Amino acid sequence: MIAQLPRIFAVMSVFFGTLMIFILPPIQAPDENSHFIRSVMVAYGKLEQHEESGQIGQHVPISLSNYVDAHGYLKFNPDRKYPYASWYRDSHQKAEFTPTEFLHYSTQDASPLLYLPQALGIRVAQFFAEVIPLRPFDFSWAAAQYGARLGNLVMFTVVGVISLAYVSRYRLVAFASLTLPMVMQQSASSSYDATTLAVAVGFFALLTGLLERQRAPRKVEIALLIICAFLLGHAKAAYAPLLLSAVLFYKIVERRELVYLLGGMFAASLVGFLITTLVLGVPDNPVAASYYAAQIDWLKEHWWDVPRLIAYSTWHNQALLTISYFANFGWLDTNWALPMVILPAGCLMIAVLADGSLGKGLFGAWGTSVVVAGLILSITAFTLAMYIYWTSSIVPDGQGIGAPVVQGVQGRYFLPLTVFGLAVFAALPDFIAKRIDRMRNDAALALVTLSTTNLTLMLFAILVRYWVPSSS
User: Fold this and answer.
1) What angle, rounded to 10 degrees, do the helices at 171-178 and 339-356 form?
2) Average per-residue pLDDT in the chain?
């Protein structure tokens, strides 16, 4: 069963991901309103931005903006449904690229690299809609959205299969992470989170796979490590401390080569970060910028309060963090049954215990400390980023400056940290007897069964939320 996990994941990803693409109504994945617009703009090479009336933005097709706005009524109200008539209208309403209107949206400064799978999917969808004469129908924004989602799903499936095939020591941990309902939902959306998650899993597989093989990385593997480092800094710089894990290569690489490798990785991450901030960064509106600056000044003056801020915010937001980590499927805005939280958590625990049953982990005590340090730094960096940007701006009239708790936080933003956290825990239970040889095969079967149950429940919840008419 363990040897078949790459193939099993491919089947699960294609099956559940494809259903997710078409069952989830338009613009209902987390922040998909802005992600979809960015995907379209990247697909057609519209990257230029300029200032109008004190704001930075782009000229976006009015029909695209209207398409996104037209589905806002579904948000935050479980009683509102997406009837078949709406789906039919969306699917047959031609996408018009002119006229355009000036629009400021939240992801307009996000890197085009993070939208390449979506952009390719959109162009393929247009090709099938307009070029192939077997089924002539107008290219619609709905078709573009399905294409963007499909592009992400194909990319994520390929990376997941390769990662699972490459890694063996933590194959169950990787499989559990890839099949979390929230992860699978993001992989079938037009969000750039699919790319971020794929990079995290790929880097994890490279790291542990090389340590398993006890050999120095080859040229292709070095190139992939550099690419992962670049994308970590480019996509979400707060995740970059995870690169500390590469210090563990001291076991398999000579000191001189290790210095070159680590230097190249951190340089690539820095270049990715600088491109994001200096080349692609877009100034926000002056009011928000003043809030950010004030929040940073407050942190400088109260730096000793940062540990309390993070600890209290984690405790205060524990319910929101937990629910949104396992079951944040966009704007369903519904009360989740307890199994929707317990089952994914159970899958992660099974993976940890099963991989831990192999005895001493690859990392060892010192290596585990390095990975833990990277996790702590990443969590701290991400929490502070949310405190600076979200808490200072979402609370009206600047009341979020110096607030006692981080607000607006969602657990899904910590998903890329999952595989590394699970690897640490899987390395710790050395007390588990090695004689339990069958445990991993039994655990793999249980993991596949429970993951399938999780994803089935997720699809059922989406069907009920959006497609089943209300009793009233």
Assistant:
1) 160
2) 86
| Rounded-to-integer distance, Cα 36 and Cα 39, Å | 5
Number of domains the chain contains: 1
Question: What phi and psi, each to the nearest 5 degrees, are found at residue 50?
Answer: -155, 175
Please check whether residue 380 lies inside any domain of the structure. yes
Q: Which domain holds residue 242?
A: 21-466
Distance CA 288, CA 434 (A): 56
CA–CA separation, 12 vs 180, rounded Å? 11
Of 193-197, 306-310, 343-347, where does mean pLDDT reach its minimum? 343-347
In a domain, 5, yes or no: no
Q: Is residue 1 part of a domain?
A: no
Query: What is the per-residue pLDDT for 98?
Result: 86
> Which own/partner pairs from 467-471 qualify as long-range (CB within 8 Å, at least 24 positions apart)?
467/23, 467/81, 467/82, 468/81, 469/81, 469/83, 470/79, 470/81
260 pLDDT more than 90: yes
Which one, of 190, 76, 181, lies nearest residue 411 by Cα?
A: 181
- Dihedral sign (CA 305, 309, 312, 315): negative
State pLDDT tens for residues 136-165.
567 889 999 999 999 999 999 999 999 999
Asked whether residue 307 is domain-assigned, the answer is yes
